[in-house]
Amino acid sequence: MESETKSPKATQEKTEPKMDSKSQNYKLHAKNIDVFYDDFKAINNISLGILEKSITAFIGPSGCGKSTFLRLFNRMNDYIDGFSMNGNILLDDKNIYDPDLKVEELRKTVGMVFQKPNPFPKSIYENVAYGLRIQGIKDEDFIEERVITSLKQATLFSEIEDNLDKSALSLSGGQQQRLCIARALAVKPSVLLMDEPTSALDPISSGKIEDLVHELKKDYTIVIVTHNMQQAGRVSDNTAFLYMGSLIEYGDTQKIFTNPEKDRTQNYITGRFG
Ligand SMILES: Nc1ncnc2c1ncn2[C@@H]1O[C@H](COP(=O)(O)OP(=O)(O)OP(=O)(O)O)[C@@H](O)[C@H]1O
């Protein structure tokens, strides 16, 4: 029978990545989180801190709660019937579930990219400008500058610079996903949540997104859900392994993939289940 703990020395502190001396605080801090869909408990008492300008991967078998947990960070679960939660999520030490907090403001700071590219049926330019326009920004020079900068950051600009008026739906899947990243960046978030952003893409497009994610780490705190363990190993600094709604292990990605504390993590990363 699989034992929960490989080493008797494994303690709770091993599930938290070490903070460097510069960062006194976590960018994001989930504290004692339970999530329910009606009576079903999808997340079971998870606490986890995420350092600024780092990439954190959530891994684990299908249905373990990765997407549910990710969506808590910009309150995307609020729309789901039957959703309820316990615990707090802090962004820069402020509780994002505070009743006074404006969700639209939160989503400016915490952007999201989904599994399937979901551009609007508008031009490439208007897709990226969208978030600025709904903020009421009217200055076209400002919008243009932001659109171009965001497309460059998302490494798409050189491929489409003569076609900004073309429909976003005419782009390839990989280009559409980079457009969705540009759209998220245009409103200047500081956190980017990515829910399996490459699972609908071919390997070359996936590689471009991985390179981009790596590049974006300079300026953003990134949390990525992935089924692809090679991808988690390549792109992330820290990895959280979830199983049946619980956080089994969390820490330095290298360590999780080469010398995990828990047998269950070892069995998952070596493909013995999942
Ligand atoms: N809207 C919902 N209503 C009821 N149950 C849900 C809902 N969304 C998710 N669940 C349940 O919550 C659990 C966690 O689901 P979640 O989608 O977060 O897992 P996941 O690890 O992201 O899975 P996958 O890798 O397959 O996307 C699952 O048992 C799922 O069936």
Automatic annotation (TrEMBL):
Keywords assigned: ATP-binding, Nucleotide-binding, Phosphate transport, Transport
Gene Ontology biological-process entries: phosphate ion transmembrane transport
Domain ABC transporter: 28-269
PANTHER family in the record: ABC TRANSPORTER I FAMILY MEMBER 17
Gene symbol of the encoding locus: pstB
Protein name: Phosphate ABC transporter ATP-binding protein
Biased composition (Basic and acidic residues): 1-21
Chain spans, region Disordered: 1-23
Gene Ontology terms, MF aspect: ATP binding; ATP hydrolysis activity; phosphate transmembrane transporter activity
Keyword Nucleotide-binding attributed: yes
CC terms in the record's Gene Ontology section: membrane
